[in-house]
Amino acid sequence: MSSPSRTWLDLAHQLPLPYVIAMGDQLIRMPRPRLEGRTEPYANKEGLRLLIRQHPNMKGVEKARLALEDMRVGADSFPETFLRLAMVDARLPEPELQLRLDPDDPWSPSADLGYRRFRIAVQYDGAPHLTREQQTKDNRRDEAFTGAGWSYFKVNADDLAEGFAGLIVRIKRAKLRSV
Fold this sequence. Notes:
By secondary structure, the protein is α+β, with helices and mostly antiparallel strands. It has 9 helices and 4 strands. A 4-stranded mixed sheet has the order 1-2-3-4, sandwiched between helices. Strand 3, helix 7 and strand 4 form a beta-alpha-beta unit. The longest helix has 16 residues.
């Protein structure tokens, strides 16, 4: 039996770097207790650093070390990580994850990522967003951001398939308009 952290390290040599980063993001993200039945992440970056130090000659350890530098708490899915990485690769600033419309209100609607400074929010809608109940919640969130004057982008698997290229162009345009 292997731990989630050790499985991440074991797979590092076989997977492309973005997947190692995305797996790592899932290990360190804060769980949603009502949905997952747990309150703590599977790992933290310090523990993963220690694991890497304990296995200096293991295949993939260098890739795991590189991944650790790009891992962030806040991505709730692989596509969210891939979106963040695409934005950074396109020379956009590092986005804030789980961006709350009102950062002082824990009940405020939040988008997956974005830029408070430029009033840009991005939401990745995967399969869990297809239920009627979730769509109702999503519509309220979407209206809150657009009603507050934010540039708001909703993306899905089609955008992921194109590497978020079209979205990146739209975000860069919105960023220029906000300056």
